[in-house]
Amino acid sequence: MQYLLLLLCLGGVQLVPLEESYLSSKEKCGYESCPATSPNMLNVHIVPHTHDDVGWLKTVDQYYYGSRNNIQKAGVQYILDSVVKELWESPERRFIYVETAFFWKWWVRQPTVIQEKVHTLVRQGRLQMVGGAWSMNDEAASHYQSTIDQFTWGLKKLNDTFGKCGWPHVGWQIDPFGHSREFANLLAMMGYDGLFLGRIDYQDKRARLKGKNMEMVWRGDDVLGKSSDIFTGVLFNTYSPPPGFCFDVLCADEPIIDDPSSPMYNVELKTSLFKIFFSLLKIMHFLDICTNMSKAYKTSNILLTMGEDFHYQDAAMWFRNLDKLIEYSNLKAAKDGMNISVFYSTPNCYLKSVKEANPTLPTKRDDFFPYARVMQHHDAITGTEKQHVTHDYERLLSQAIDDAIIIAKQAFNKMVTKDRNSKPVFDFQRCHLNESSCEVSESSDSFVVTIYNPLGWSVKEPVRIPVTDGASIKTQLVSISTKVKSIPTRVSRATQEIVFLAELKPLSYKNFYIKKSNRPKRNLKPTFDFYSNINRNVWPNINYNDLSKTEYEKYLTTQPIPDAPLYLQDIPNAYDRIINLDVLKNGPNDNSEKILEMEKILTENGRKMDKINIENHFETDPNAQDKKILELKQILNDNTRKTDKGNDAANIDDLKANTDDHDQKMMELEKIFDDRKSTAKGTNEPKMANFPVMFNMEEMRMLSDDPHAAVGVDDVVSLGNQHFTLEVNKATGVINNVIFSDHSKANFSINMYYYLGTCGDNHDTAHRASGAYIFRPACNAPIKLDSFSNEIIKGDIVKEIRVELSPAGYIDVKIYDNHNYIEVEWVVGPIPILDDIGKEYIVKYETKIVNNGEFHTDSNGRQLLKRNRDFRPQWNVTLQEPVPGNYYPVTNQINIKNNDLKLTVLTDRSQGGSSMADGEIELMLHRRLLCDDAFGVGEALNETAKDKGLVARGKHRVYITKGKDDLKAQVVEMHQPPILLFADAKNIKYDDWLAMDNEFSWLDKDLPKGIHLLTLEPWDSKLLIRVENYYEDENASANVNLQDLFKNIKILNVEEMLLAGHRPADGYKQWVWKKEGVTETAEAVKSPDSKNLTVNIKGKEIKTFLADFEIKQHHTLVKSPKMEISTHYEVTTVV
Fold this sequence. Notes:
Layout: H1 2-11, E1 42-48, H2 60-65, H3 76-89, E2 95-97, H4 100-107, H5 112-123, E3 127-129, H6 144-162, E4 170-173, H7 181-190, E5 194-197, H8 202-211, E6 215-219, E7 229-234, H9 267-291, E8 301-306, H10 315-336, E9 340-344, H11 347-357, E10 360-361, E11 363-364, H12 387-416, H13 439-443, E12 446-453, E13 459-467, E14 477-479, H14 482-485, E15 496-504, E16 508-516, E17 550-556, E18 567-568, E19 612-613, H15 622-639, H16 646-649, H17 659-680, E20 716-720, E21 724-729, E22 735-740, E23 745-756, E24 783-784, E25 786-795, E26 798-806, E27 809-816, E28 822-828, E29 839-847, E30 854-859, E31 863-868, E32 888-890, E33 893-897, E34 902-907, E35 911-914, E36 920-928, E37 944-945, E38 948-949, E39 952-961, H18 968-975, E40 979-984, H19 990-994, E41 999-1001, E42 1011-1019, E43 1022-1029, E44 1038-1041, E45 1049-1057, E46 1074-1075, E47 1094-1097, E48 1102-1111, E49 1122-1125, E50 1129-1134
Parallel strand pairs: 1-8, 1-9, 2-3, 4-5, 5-7, 6-11, 10-46
Antiparallel strand pairs: 6-7, 12-16, 12-40, 13-15, 14-15, 16-41, 16-50, 17-25, 18-19, 20-21, 21-22, 22-23, 23-24, 23-29, 25-26, 26-27, 27-28, 28-39, 29-36, 30-31, 30-33, 32-35, 33-34, 34-39, 35-36, 37-38, 42-43, 43-48, 44-47, 45-48, 49-50
Helix pairs in contact: 1-12, 9-10, 15-17
């Protein structure tokens, strides 16, 4: 969408200028402002700081303004007000600030006199920015492009406001749960000199403390080599002050009382405790020399964090006590000859002191995942904010999307009309395609779909548009599944989807004109459907000439068997399943219109059921039927219970918890049987068949009068395309094998499971609950979901296998024409919790690949890292929790392989994943838990919508390949699919539409293979351009001519910048550290000649440029002939 902002610039839409900068280089800032240290003393760097979550227990605005203090006493505006006041009073004091989002919100509301004071504090190094991104982003779930963008935005604000003195020199990732290798690589490319971490795995930290390896050189990428190195330090106390020295209004520690006449005088006590704390570190250093045990740090410098979450709302409390602590500690140390020097400092200054000490550091080449604490604290899968904060994030995201749509409306309207000054023609809207819902396509007789390809190469992408009716056409029309139509939040009349393959040029848009045509209705010649036993005057005979492109085959999981007994029995850990008792409908020879139905009698309110035989449920003997009625009533009475889950009570439509409704249900049940008894005498009706325990009204079909109608079908159906064929079990819908184009075969199946979530009182590890922070299943073996209905769809463009799973699962396997992947759409929810057990749903892709515990996951969507089950590269791990201990963040892909076969799954969102057994890949889909894990949120992860459990829908793309494959481009395509916008065309005549510019590409041709246009957006009066080579071979370089890259933009000259775009690359010199067993020298980054616009980009490099440009005045918009496809819907486009 950022490219569309560029279109507005080119179209003459004025952008709002940013604030004017106050720049000054007269005073010392950065490293030049650091205090002097002594190599012969223990230098204690006191670092005052606050950690201000941009949303956690309260929303962003609630935190900024300090509202809702009944939740948490926190107000960021008061922190910054108070800190600036206290810093101004003493030139020795220091403070660091991290979250630019909060700082900027505060900054723009300050009067000039306060802004000038802040400028002075920054220029003198007394207030220093660290991190500098818009927020302290998560490292497990964030995509690298999003990380780059949010750093770019935050650093631009600081650079425009404070110039070089506003440049952060260190990363400050003290609160994320686990740290990614790619994040370290990105910081190195942005020009950061160091990175400080707060949270790492407790076993890893224990080993590092013992081995004196709390500081290291982290190599961010093996292909990029030493240019990706960055100093990384693990903070001793996460980011808290030492016990007893928290001087905030939110703390209960005693202040320093230095009046000897006071009975509460505690200077000696306090300084003694302070001395003991650092004497301990000194002793550890001494013992390291004497007994070959190392201390935490290799130099005589210690960074001591003084602050916590939302501290310094009354900064005077902190600074007055820290002033005293520093003064009296230095006096006491000098008196006792302890060689300790305590002073105010910053992470920049600490890093400078460590660099001057020139230690030899170990090298790290992996990452800090999975993350676990003693209590198995794990946050690689789910967010950890309160639910109302989640809703506020949703509001902000929705608002941002709406703003982006405004940009898109203006940009595309300017492109499609020849007159750039004309009024907008189309009112483009976004649709809820994740719910197969679109008001424009459902209600309009004619509409335009604009599809925008943000990638620098051509793509052929499947497109699905929801409509209310239609017939098969070349584009193919497919029904929307019942599972999708039943999503609680869905508001839509659409029952079908138009499916077609859109061929899109690089960095282009393309318009499609779709209208309903007035075709005669299909022949409704009556016939009898033996599968459903619906009367012939109800079920129409479909004209298969019209539907030749899409065929539907529908199967029950268990085939009907006449005269077989039916049992209602306990299914362990699945008490929430809806049990429907549907009955035989009248056959073709029965003129009665009475339809006997009994369903949803035993619903989610039903608890554990004893095994009860109702074989003769439809006995013709009235006495026997009365007995069965009483039996069913007894089942209901014995097992019905009320639930305290208010949100799920709304899920039960047919059975309420109140007695009156219950009695009414019993009366209806008896009437059904009475009516049946009056018509059943003297007939030869078959008995109830052995249907599965789980079925619903749509999937449940009755036996025909001809019992052979339901049997005699083949067990296996084959579905495929030019690349592979899947063998599917008709009865279950489960895939058994994949057959490749060379006729070789491999085992492959897809199944859905769930883990039972642990509940506990959280008083120790063994009783820790699975919750927002914690993934902790009650047992290591997940429970497999049962299929109870499947449907097979065959068409020219897409073939599908739809399987409904119980409870609350759904899988739709799609095979598109001439596409070499299997698309798996999954839907989970509402997750049932009426058994008082939370559940965590996963999908497993199962093969016979022997991967020996090895698998690969991506790091923030970029590089792939090797994982080994039950193993850590840098310490001997002991896993208390085998499943969570092997889960890793998956941003884009996960794979397993052996010498013959490779299974790769691409995800459409960040998920937790693993290979818990050879041949398997599992990914977490959805979680619903009933117990809080007591790590701060204070509520269970029980999300709802429309008073029902939340429904999650997503998709995976599965590649099963032989030999070496290259899926780099496919990974990018999955992450950045085409954007669809819809506009009503009722006022647009077809001929007028044809005269518009309905297709345009901003590139003359595809970018060189491996090259990705990562960023193209206006940057003040320039363009910000990022070009990436996504190949992992450093020798796979490519040349890109920036001058002629764009069709309608001429690049005049460029300046290469560091990755975040805030400082020039020319002259930047990376810090080089002594590494164990390695000798290296520093290399300055050389910027290319600004006039030579052909740049060479090596494998894994991202080049960032600020470009001067001008618009080409005589470029020609490509206009191609039209293609019409006519049927019930007519789709017109350009080719």
